[in-house]
Amino acid sequence: MSPTVSHSTPDQPAADPAGDWDAWRTERRRSLTSPTGNLALVETRWLPAGERPDAEAARAGQPDTVTVTTLQRADLVTGEPEHGLRFWDADSPAVRHFDRVEAFPYDPAWVLHATYTPVPGARRVSFEHLRDNGGTRDLVVPGDISLTVDGRDYTLSAFDDDGTLLLVFGDPTNGDTTYGAGRFLFVQRTEDDHRVLLDFNRAFVPPCGFSDQYNCPMPPRQNRFHLPVEAGEQRPVFRDGFPAQH
User: Fold this and answer.
1) Residue 181 CB: number of other CB atoms within 10 A?
2) Across the beta sheet with 41-46, what order do the strands follow?
3) Total-model pTM
4) 171 with 228: CB under 8 angstroms?
5) pLDDT tens-digit profile of 179-232?
6) What is the C-alpha separation between 128 and 192, in angstroms, rounded?
7) pLDDT per residue over 123-164, tens digit each?
8) What is the three-state SS of 212-236?
9) CB 212 within 8 A of CB 93
């Protein structure tokens, strides 16, 4: 379904938007199958409180295809830092069996312009995460994204992902033709600080759709569209009966 959208005059369109989308799809595949891509994550290991990770020691004795990195998060109860290790295998079963990510055909009607209103201060919004058993984690949402789609007004919350706005959204296609827990979309800034671009053709399956070792944020209520967003990635496809959820 293509949306009916109210927005201001768009920026100059790309010379070949469909070609740019094809290039994005190619780069997306390269990223997913890289030695530390989503498909390569085979273990996330959280350490006991107070213990610091040693990636070099953890790497000892592992196959040559394995990379070990460190990560950190806040404990849901205490707020104290938790440290962990991630193990990536360039020859993981998911990498070996990966075929493709299904996607809707490119649709220029799903390139939407929206108003962006910065919010002073470090406002934090609670996002439920897939593997937190209903718990929430507060993420910094630096502004509101407003647009009207199919006659309905939305004020979306995109959080700060290392300096880029990341929108976690849901729609009626989830669990039917697209990944069940929602999809992600990077919000594109424009030359106008108060306008952003939402190209839903570049909506993508979150990392947890490729490995159960991720803990992805889920769409809050305000980020759930009432109409099907039939654009962007749908679901990963694997060969030889390999399960999509592994």
Assistant:
1) 19
2) 41-46, 81-89, 66-74
3) 0.92
4) yes
5) 999 999 999 999 999 999 999 999 999 999 999 999 999 999 999 999 999 999
6) 32
7) 999 999 988 888 899 999 999 999 999 999 999 999 999 999
8) CCCCCECCCHHHECCCCCCCCEEEE
9) no
